[in-house]
Design a protein that fits this description.
By secondary structure, this protein is an alpha+beta fold. A hairpin with a 3-residue loop joins strand 17 and strand 18.
Length: 796
């Protein structure tokens, strides 16, 4: 109990004792004839009587009085509690005098720049009673919050200020932050075998530096200091020094109290190695399989991390066979500098799944989740089946997290519970976006990716702007007739103004298209159950009109012959998707091959074949970093003239809105160019802003040439992603390389446009993912200049 409260309690007891003018015999036992409460204004007097424990009509002792004062004081509602008594003919009349603590009207903070009120996490709440003890506790909490940020010299003072309302006060905290204490140096003594730099890197409290100051590092955090000492010992154990200890440590504050020097003296001891490893007690798993679970080999330097992981892998091997209750006990014995390991295993019996419960799904129906599970009631529990189930549910992209839990039954079976956290699904979005090609575009989008909680998706979108107007409606049923078969359709209409050559004021024309498509897909179990196949049919009527004055009649005729008409095409796709997450994947891969046929028996104005092959790989690197390279190859085949392939189906590269994403360049600025001015039909690829005319024309730099979209492209996008705010904000570093060629025969991996840069992705509830990339091209007139790419209201 704080000193102020103890003093008040003692004073109250002393007052009680003086108030009794009775002899010792009478004080030992007296009947309480009356009990009153005085001084209260907002507290119920009956509450005070009940808490005191005093009852009229009962015998009263001195200890009863003391206990009553203590219990009323314990309500923490009063600044003072006194008991006064008066002897009457019928017994003792007592009055409990209280002085109430004021109630808190508001809190205010002055001088706090580095931290806000929410960072303090104070227990003080508006409307509660408040006194000196509560203020002192709040001051300690504020100092602790600053200490976590390295501000150990913060000065916090508080006071209660009366308000216009009787019984209410404002709590005012005056804060002087002063400078944070930073780590100047970390010094190790006695470390002959492990360098100081290696040990320092394991610590949270590292010396202050330029980059660490940018990200708020370099501050001394006393709460993490104990963890730092354990981290130093762990660093030694990972290198085989099992006897390493910290003999002494100290934190020295400099004279101006702005920096500290951390000093540690260590004793390293000898270096140990893995010796023999033996297994006993196993019958289900062979010794060979258990040895494959080991993360070390005999003769390796002893590594505590590898040793601990080996035990976990042995457990995982048994969990895969359903033996959830297997026990693995390891015993280590040292012989000279060798560590011999003996594993004693108690396997138990396999556990079967009894029930699978699903919780947390307010909107999504149970069956949508259950049909994605790879584990079922009655089966032997297998770890891989559970992991696959979690992965399948996450790939629905309806949930932000899925957490499994187990309940063991008396007969050894288990009940499995999957707790899901739903994402906002249905959305009505009214907003706008901007791109280099379409400029400002308004958007009205009604999207429901989990329609009525049944997994169906529907969308209705309207886009309107000076250069783009489009309307589309679509629907997808992912489990047609409760089978892993998806069906869907899309209807769309588009009016879009293009500026193919990127020469200001020239070469504008309008694309008008109306189309409808239908889709059919099926999940497969062969070659494995990551495979899916898809079929689609598309009918599209497109026209190119409204040519600008820069277009000659011959050029207009050439483009309309190459572009106007009806596309009737069907496509077949094979996809193998083994990613762990639909967004921000950290492991696995995704491969797809799409083959499209146009014309022929399908009708339409063009006959062509289109191939597209894509492969992405995801691999964890270090501390949240994920490497994600993607390769994309596209080839379209048709007749011998440009008109034999639909103009809209041919490829272009550059920017983010193209077939071949190459950031750092303008959208669609990389086109195939045929240069005929030098006698031979030599093909080059150059950024489109070098080009003066789309079909034929004369450019002072290149002479006479044909500029067309290509019939082949190759691109590689390599990204390293990392979470900034998990599941909300991710950063990325990228390197892009690719090009477009007039035909597949002209593909040249040595002739690529390259760029590098950085960006980030933000997941906004109800909107989706927003992306911002900043690329620096390594080729062309814009070489070395930073090029931003961004899009609002959508994702890349």
């Amino acid at each position: 109990m704080p000193c102020a409260r103890i003093f008040g309690l003692v004073l109250a007891f002393f007052t009680c004792c003086l108030s009794f003018c009775v002899d010792d015999a009478q004080a030992q036992s007296t009947v309480l004839s009356e009990l009153r409460v005085e001084g209260q204004s907002s507290t119920d007097p009956q509450l005070i009587k009940n808490v005191s424990g005093l009852v009229v009509g009962r015998n009263l002792t001195r200890e009863d009085i003391q206990r009553a004062v203590h219990q009323v004081w314990g309500l923490n509602l009063f600044a003072d509690v006194r008991v006064e008594g008066e002897q009457t003919p019928t017994g003792l009349s007592l009055a409990i005098h209280v002085r109430e603590l004021p109630r808190l009207s508001s809190l205010s903070f002055k001088g706090n720049k580095e931290l806000k009120e929410k960072d303090f996490s104070l227990a003080l709440k508006r409307g509660q009673t408040v006194g000196p003890n509560e203020l002192k506790e709040a001051e300690r909490t504020i100092r602790a919050a600053y200490a976590k940020k390295g501000f150990f010299l913060v000065d916090v003072r508080s006071e209660l200020v009366s308000t216009a309302v009787t019984g209410e006060v404002d709590a005012v905290f005056q804060i002087k932050e002063n400078n944070p204490v930073k780590v100047a140096r970390v010094e190790f003594m006695g470390n002959a075998q492990v360098e100081s730099e290696v040990l320092t890197k394991k610590m949270s409290n590292k010396p202050h530096g330029f980059f660490r100051s940018i990200f708020g590092g370099g501050h001394f955090n006393r709460e993490k200091y104990a963890d730092d000492k354990r981290a130093v010992i762990d660093a030694y154990r990972q290198r085989g020094y099992l006897d390493a200890v910290i003999l002494s440590d100290t934190v020295v504050l400099n004279d101006d109290k702005t920096r500290v020097t951390i000093q540690m003296t260590v004793s390293e001891g000898p270096r140990y190695y893995f010796g023999t490893t033996t297994f006993t007690g196993m019958s289900v798993l062979s010794e060979a399989k258990l040895r494959r679970a080991l993360q070390y080999r005999s003769g390796d330097v002893f590594d505590q991390e590898a040793f601990d992981k080996s035990e976990q892998e042995i457990y995982n091997a048994y969990m895969e066979e359903g033996y959830l209750y297997a026990r693995v006990i390891n015993e280590t014995r040292t012989q000279d500098t060798m560590v011999n390991v003996a594993y004693e295993i108690s396997e138990g019996v396999p556990a079967h799944v009894n029930l699978i419960n699903i919780t947390g799904n307010v909107r999504t129906k149970d069956k949508v989740i259950r049909r994605e599970l790879a584990i079922y009631p009655g089966q032997v529990f297998r770890r891989s089946a559970l992991q696959r189930s979690l992965r399948n549910v996450m790939l629905l992209n309806y949930f932000s997290n899925v957490t499994p839990d187990f309940s063991q039954l008396p007969d050894g079976r288990v009940d499995l519970t999957l707790n899901v956290e739903e994402k906002p699904t249905g959305q009505i979005q009214v907003g706008g976006g901007y791109s280099e090609q379409d400029h400002l575009v308004g958007t009205v989008n009604l999207g429901i990716p989990n329609l009525f909680g049944g997994g169906q998706s529907a969308n209705l979108m309207l886009e309107f702007g000076n250069r783009r107007q489009s309307y589309s409606v679509g629907f997808t049923e992912p489990w047609f007739m409760d089978t892993p078969t998806s069906v869907g359709f899309d209807i769309q209409k588009l009016d879009r103004i293009w500026d193919e050559a990127y020469v200001e004021g020239t070469d504008d024309f309008t694309q008008k298209s109306t189309g409808i498509s239908t889709r059919l897909g099926r999940r497969l179990r062969w070659p494995d159950d990551y495979f899916s196949v898809y079929w689609s049919y598309r009918w599209e009527d497109q026209k190119y009109t409204d040519f600008s004055a820069a277009w000659s009649a011959a050029d207009q005729a050439a483009l309309t012959a190459a572009a106007n008409g009806v596309i009737s095409a069907t496509s077949f796709s094979v996809v193998r998707d083994a990613r762990d997450l639909p967004e921000f994947a950290t492991k696995g891969s995704r491969a797809s091959y799409r083959l499209e046929f146009g014309g022929g028996a399908l009708g339409g104005d063009w006959s062509y074949t289109k191939h597209n092959l894509t492969y992405s790989r995801y691999r964890k690197l270090w501390k949240g970093l994920t490497l994600a390279p993607t390769w994309n190859l596209g080839v379209i085949q048709g007749g011998t003239t440009g008109s034999a392939v639909p103009y809209s189906e041919q490829f272009y590269a550059g920017g983010i809105r193209s077939d071949a994403m190459i950031r750092g360049y303008d959208d669609r600025s990389i086109l195939a160019v045929t240069d005929t001015s030098r006698g031979a039909d030599r093909l080059e690829t150059v950024p489109g802003d070098f080009v003066a005319d789309l079909i034929t024309g004369r450019n002072p730099r290149y002479g006479v040439m044909d500029t067309v979209r290509g019939r082949a492209f190759l691109v590689m996008n390599a990204q390293i992603t990392f979470p900034i705010v998990p599941k909300q904000i991710h950063g990325l570093l990228f390197f892009d390389a690719g090009n477009v060629w007039y035909s597949a025969a002209r593909i040249d991996p040595a002739d690529l446009f390259t760029s590098y840069g950085f960006g980030f992705r933000i997941t906004v509830p109800g909107v989706g993912m927003l992306g911002f990339d900043f690329g620096i091209p390594l080729r062309g007139d814009e070489k070395g200049k930073l090029k931003p790419h961004f899009q609002f209201g959508g994702s890349f």
